[in-house]
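Standup notes
- DV: blocked on the single-chain target, sequence here:
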Amino acid sequence: MAKLNDPILMATIGAAQGLRGDVRVRCFTANPLTVGDYGNLHAEDGRVFEILETRPGKNNMIVIRFRGVNDRTAAEALRGLNLYIERDNLPDDELEDEEYFYADLEGLDVFDDAGNSYGAISAIFDFGAGDLLELKGPGRRPVLIPFNESAVLEIDFEDRRVLIDPVAAGLVDDGDGDASDFPDPDAR
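- DV (later): unblocked, structure below
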């Protein structure tokens, strides 16, 4: 199996489920049960996984049976494995105007309206209370900002830029005296 050119993380394998080789999986898709619609899943080590069956699980997980994983021992060996697809397998033609895949945000440069750079988007997280963008810049520690309309003002895929409001994003103090001063994340 050749290395994927533009890998998109689709799922992470959790614990084994039962004795027949099924595994619990956390999917990063809008509908986890459709993860098999994107084709075979690929591990970083080159292994390819064909999904035979998916079914709902507990705690936002699904249960998957893969071809060739036939017992609990084989399933347990997969725990923690990240699974990817090629970016080209995502159905762009089904997107509405102004819709995009979160994976397309990664690598976009982030600026405020004064032209100050805050790095580039390196990841998108959902911890339950709202999505967060992780920003990384050269020589800077990563910072998380809320991914909402107040903080993220504009996304320009053509110029590969994101415009943010640094106050709403929690990166600078608004000077009203109500908020504590935000420390410089690079200072130590």
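- Follow-up: The chain is about 5% helix and 35% strand.
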